[in-house]
Amino acid sequence: MIRVTLPTHLRTLAQVTGAVDLDVPEPVTQRAILDALEAAYPMLRGTIRDISTHERRAFVRFFACGEDLSHEPPDASVPDDVVKGKEPFRIIGAMAGG
C-alpha cells in the first residue's frame, strides 16, 4: 500500500481525514500513484493535474523522503521507502504571494 498525504483543501474535497492508502500497481511511479488516487477519489480529477494533459498544476508539489519530486518525470520510480509503505508520497499546495 502506498500512503498519500494531501493538503487540507483536497482532503476536504475527497471527504477524508488524514492520509489515504492506495493499492498501486508496479512499477510505482508518480503517474501510477496519481492515477490510483484519481480512480479512488474521482472528485480530485483536475485538481492535482490538468484534466486533459495530465501535467502537474503549477502550484502543486510532490515530496517523498525529504526530496522534491515535482520536476521528476511522471514515469520515474518513486523512492523505495514509499513503495514499501515506510514513507508517504506527499502532495503539497505550494505557497505563493508577496
State the gist of this model.
The protein is an alpha+beta fold.
SSE layout:
Blueprint: E1 2-5, H1 8-14, E2 20-22, H2 30-40, E3 60-64, E4 67-68, H3 80-83, E5 89-93
Parallel strand pairs: 1-5
Antiparallel strand pairs: 1-2, 3-4, 3-5
Walk me through this protein's architecture:
With 98 residues, the protein is of the alpha+beta class. The protein is built from 3 helices and 5 strands, in the order E-H-E-H-E-E-H-E. It has helices spanning 8-14, 30-40, 80-83, and strands spanning 2-5, 20-22, 60-64, 67-68, 89-93. It has a 5-stranded mixed β-sheet, covered by helices on one side. A hairpin with a 2-residue loop joins strand 3 and strand 4 (67-68). The mean pLDDT is 94.
- Enumerate how many helices there are, as a single number: 3
Low-confidence stretches: none
The percent range for strand residues is: 15-25%
Mean pLDDT: 94
By oligomeric state, this entry counts as: single chain
Shape field: globular
- N-end to C-end Cα span: 39 Å
State the helical fraction: 10-25%
Tell me how many strands there are. Answer: 5
Structural class: alpha+beta
- Order of strands, main sheet, comes to 2-1-5-3-4
Major sheet characteristics:
5 strands, mixed
Q: Over all CA atoms, what is the radius of gyration? A: 12 Å
| Helix and strand element order | EHEHEEHE
